[in-house]
Design goal:
Blueprint lengths: L2 H7 L2 H10 L9 H9 L6 H12 L6 E4 L6 H10 L2 E5 L3 H6 L5 H12 L5 E4 L2 H11 L6 E3 L8
Parallel strand pairs: 1-2, 2-3, 3-4
Helix pairs in contact: 3-7
């Protein structure tokens, strides 16, 4: 895409308009896109990935990159290759999205997360329950998980 179009689509009014249309809670029709995001091969074009790398490195190389959820785990392989940094991934509610998908998409999504997990240095889960659920769905080794409860200690 030409640079002038990037600037238009990245403008505040365009982003606000897009945000108003966001918020889908149904997987129907989004199964292929979900799998593509998990794989990361076609979901993140080289140009956009390079923009992300440039942004992340503009003030120096980061020590660690935190992915907000496993549905974008496909970024981990490419970011690790380009930046050679540690990558952590938080896990919360991916099962709600994936388990709503029809087969064979549901099984494929868990399989792809398991495959891409080797590029993630640590997974953060909010509870032992979710850790065990994720292990049962993906087969990722237990030692790759850290439980970080939600909330704060008021004491």
């Amino acid at each position: 895409m030409p640079v002038f179009l990037d600037k238009i689509f990245d403008s505040a009014p365009m982003l606000k308009m897009a945000a108003k249309r966001a918020g889908t809670t149904r997987t129907e029709g989004l199964e292929e896109m979900t799998l593509n995001m998990i794989k990361g091969e076609n979901a993140f074009p080289d140009k956009e990935l390079q923009r992300l790398v440039d942004y992340l490195t503009k003030d120096g190389k980061p020590d660690i990159i935190h992915l907000s959820n496993a549905l974008i785990i496909g970024l981990s392989r490419r970011l690790k290759k380009k930046l050679d940094v540690k990558i952590v991934c938080s896990l919360l509610n991916e099962d709600d999205w994936i388990d709503e998908m029809a087969e064979p998409f549901q099984s494929k999504a868990w399989e792809l997360i398991s495959k891409e997990a080797k590029y993630v240095d640590a997974f953060l889960t909010p509870s032992n329950y979710y850790k065990q659920l994720f292990i049962s769905k993906t087969g990722i080794p237990e030692e790759n998980f850290n439980v970080v409860p939600l909330g704060f200690d008021s004491a």
